[in-house]
Amino acid sequence: MLVAGNWKSNKSFNEAREFVHAFAQKEGPAEGVDVMIAPPAPYLAAMGQGELPFRLGAQNVSATGPGAQTGEFTADMLAGCGVVDVIVGHSERRDGHGDDDERVAEKVNRVLEAGLRVVFCCGESLQDRQSDVHFDKVVR
């Protein structure tokens, strides 16, 4: 079982460090439970140094490899920061950033090629749930 916390665009860097320090003082999760945090991308390298009491996840990844992709970060870059898991397909990325099914599939491939674990989001919206098509979207 995976329990994950996606921080989205929250916490200052100092708040993030304080949280990690406090989290490290807590008793570990129950057997068979993995815990993952996905802080904002600028914090990943700092969070990935040293022993962590959780799995480090990224909130996004480039659908392409290395090259002239200003502002993007590749799966290999994430792995180099200590990232183990990568979230792909989140509804906010699908709705606000053009991550359609094809782009999400490309991201999944990049993550797997880098030897990282995919945390796949189906990306169903509130409108999908209210229209009762969310199960169809998840299956697709």
Structural overview:
The chain has 140 residues and is an alpha/beta fold. 38% of the residues lie in helices and 16% in strands. The protein has seven helices and five strands, in the order E-H-E-H-E-H-E-H-H-E-H-H. The protein has helices at residues 13-24, 44-47, 75-80, 91-97, 101-113, 126-130, 134-139, and strands spanning 2-6, 34-38, 55-58, 85-88, 117-120. The chain has a five-stranded parallel β-sheet, with helices on one face. Helix 3 links the parallel strand 3 (55-58) and strand 4 (85-88). The longest helix is centred in the C-terminal third of the chain and has 13 residues, at 101-113. It is globular. 21% of the residues are buried.
Describe the secondary structure blueprint for this structure.
Blueprint: E1 2-6, H1 13-24, E2 34-38, H2 44-47, E3 55-58, H3 75-80, E4 85-88, H4 91-97, H5 101-113, E5 117-120, H6 126-130, H7 134-139
Parallel strand pairs: 1-2, 2-3, 3-4, 4-5
The biggest beta sheet is recorded as:
5 strands, parallel
- Total of helices: 7
Unreliable segments of 5+ consecutive residues: none
- Helix content, binned percent: 25-40%
Rough outline: globular
The spatial strand order of the largest sheet comes to 1-2-3-4-5
Question: What structural class is derived from the secondary structure elements?
Answer: alpha/beta
Mean pLDDT: 91
How far apart are the termini?
A: 23 Å
Radius of gyration equals 16 Å
Spell the H/E element sequence.
EHEHEHEHHEHH
* Strand-residue proportion: 15-25%
Question: How many β-strand stretches?
Answer: 5
